[in-house]
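Record 1 of the preview.
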Amino acid sequence: MASHRRPKQPNRARVTVLTTAAAAAVVLSSQAANAAPSEKPSKDEVKAKVDKLYQQAEQATEKYNGAKEKQEKLQKEISTIQDNVAKGQQELNELRDGLGSMASAQYRSGGLDPSLQLFLSADPDDYLDKASTLDQLSIQQVDALKKIQEKQRELAQQRSEASGKLEDLASTRTELGKKKKEVQGKLGAAQKLLNSLTAEEKAKLAEEEARATRASEREVLKASGTDAGTAAGTGTSAPVSSGSGRAGAAFAAAQSKLGTPYVYGATGPSSFDCSGLTSWAYAQAGVGLPRTSEAQTGAGTRIYSASQLQVGDLVFFFNDLHHVGLYAGNGQIIHAPRSGTVVRYESMNTIGGPFMFGVRV
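->
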């Protein structure tokens, strides 16, 4: 027999939940449909972000350079100490051997009581001469023992010093690895931003940089008293600087590297970072500069007025002094700017950070 049972009514609470969920879904899809797509950053915005990342990468690079220099110094110091310890150990062994020989000789001749030896001796005068020799030998032993103790203390101190420097070296290597990773991270992020630009935008950025470099070259030519036509006839980007002495020689060396690529941590001659270029250039003039930009600030007399700078003076930028170049005249410098660029002339006004001071080496 057919059932006439009434169909079960849906639960009122369940209907309410389903209705609410459906309404929310409609609202969300409507919002998604009407939401404006995220705007792609403009070429100038990308450039500003990239410049900031490059600045941070250069800060990390100078710290990396400092850690690397410290590592090399520690390795040399440790090697010297270890050589000294090896020589000292050899000297200690020789002292011990000498003391052993003296002790053996004394034992062979000193087995009997001295008074009994004198009584039994056929020649008392001869015995007394030998006894005097034994006294001398005893003094030598005391001296030898003192030397051995001094050498042992010296070796213990040197080993302790080497141990401390080895610990310092281990922490320096850790710091070096961290800074290298930080630099690579900043450079990778900058490259990712640059890759987001269209080919046309990239070309415009490259042209802007080239235009700025040409303008800087013209200012350098003015400062040296050479016109652009004469410079073009020589086939060089700019004439040899009018700078004098070692500063002029260093500047001429830097000029010879125009167009050389920037590579972080590089000191030449085929690639440079900022302080790598300045230290290499002055090395060609017979002057040894420290490795990092911050350390190079102590290489001479500071000049706080840009108007008093001379060709070849070191010039420092940013509050933490992480960028350095060589003054080229007319408010221009020659420097290794950042990754993706080459050694070039640039106006001091376009470095991206304030001029702090110059240093006349």
